[in-house]
Amino acid sequence: MTTPTIAFLRSLPKAELHLHLEGSLEPELMFQLAERNGIALPYPDVEAIRAAYQFSNLQDFLDIYYQGASVLQTEQDFYDLTWAYLERCAADGVVHTEPFFDPQTHTARGISMATQFRGISRALADGEKQLGISSRLILSFLRHLSEEDAVVTLQQALPWREHFVAVGLDSSELGNPPEKFARVFAQAREAGLLCVAHAGEEGPAAYIEQALELLKVQRIDHGVRCSDDPALVERLVHEQIALTVCPLSNLKLKVVQQMQQHNILQLLERGVRVTINSDDPAYFGGYLLDNFVAVRDALEMSREQAVQLARNSLEASFLDPASRERWLNELQRVAATAA
Ligand code: ADE
Ligand code: ZN
Fold this sequence. Notes:
Layout: H1 6-11, E1 14-16, H2 27-36, H3 46-52, H4 58-68, H5 75-92, E2 94-97, E3 100-101, H6 103-107, H7 113-131, E4 134-135, E5 138-142, H8 147-157, E6 166-170, H9 182-190, E7 194-199, H10 205-214, E8 219-222, H11 230-239, E9 242-245, H12 247-252, H13 264-270, E10 273-276, H14 281-284, H15 288-299, H16 303-315, H17 321-337
Parallel strand pairs: 1-2, 2-4, 3-5, 5-6, 6-7, 7-8, 8-9, 9-10
Zinc ion (ZN) is lined by residues 18, 20, 170, 198, 221, 279.
């Protein structure tokens, strides 16, 4: 078995399919935006923010994450946030990204949908022009809020329909099953939107099944708890349903106690279309390439497995077929020639 070098991992054309823009807010930028907007942060400096990033579970993290997002106020703030993430993509060999944003986190603070969409979309367009990184934006509903709130959010977002391709579902999973959002996902599908949902991160395998059956999602975000149900794993393999797995996130939020216990490569070998993603990199200690390296080091990932993970990310993306084919060919070329 050949161990892939970092240079090899970087050189593989990859898509990132599970990234919360608000989760890419680095403490340095958080401080800069707080100062620009005259907001007082409950931390004296960047080191104190980083030191606060110790989590026992998903809710611990979400409390800090929503607080951090409060520095985002203007169109330029959303632009700067998105642009900083795209620069990380360029450094890591990410050629295509499908980021989430959580509009309810911002509309609840009086920040309009227009401000959010204008800032994010302008940065994504510049990313394509200046960095050659394509993107498709995903609007994610907060599952700890009511379905009615999500319905209102969808209505507010539909005038911006050409700026996003899919809806997602995130935030506190336990106690907020996919079935709670069946109606709003049906409305989204009627508007021609694709669907994804976080399921089986902290919640049970049954939530993955619900997301497939009731929300009719194209992909499952996280999904690592599928291993509790062999029949479900069989279905994921048979239907080639992608899981957007986030290894460093799973470690930081104690979904796994040690990276050595992570099931990502077992699922890969079983034939599940797993992908590697960074989730909230500013909070969890690394971007996409860091996640590849963490899996390599803990689980002895081979070059072939790395290439398969990159291939899965392109195949599971919402890219148009011609672009997907072009990147798959490029991946094959790089994998065959890179040292
Ligand atoms: N929002 C941002 N990151 C999340 C995660 N890992 N799970 C659920 N909601 C999130
Ligand atoms: Zn997530």
